[in-house]
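task queued by scheduler; priority normal; single chain, no ligands, no partner chains; default sampling; output format set to structure tokens
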Amino acid sequence: MKNAGHTPTTKFESLNVAATQEQSELLDVEEKSTLVMRRVWRFVDGTPTAIESSVFPQWLIGELPRLASPEVIQKGTTAWLDENGYPMTIHQDYISARPHTKPEKQFFESSPGVVSIVRRRVSFETLKDNKRGRPLRVMDTVYRSDMNEIVYDITDHKSKPEK
């Protein structure tokens, strides 16, 4: 953003929330158990562009209490978790589009017809054998459809066929 001449800014908050049924299934915790949510409201040149909400299970908060603090982790939680023994290189992404919720509509102040693009990412602990471990985070990123484009690079990791 800065290289393109734009000014990105954020507003951050941390709070305790009750696990929804879907979050409890994805994180393998009890429904309505307490999760820590770290939420970032993202702006470009003062215009609201995205909301990113990550929830973490209590067992991980017990291991790394800083996750529950209201402070911003400057290098980002993914890098910080890796440095603290919880690498997350295995993810499942779910992409959907829907009308804005009422709070999103108020935040985005977008034109009629603009919808929310939602990326839900479930991040898993990466074990030493590069296998998927416990779920560590469910992150929902809500984007304004008129200001964002999602681009993925796909790499084929299949081994070469035998001759």
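post-processing summary
- The first strand starts at residue 8 and ends at 18.
- The mean pLDDT is 91.
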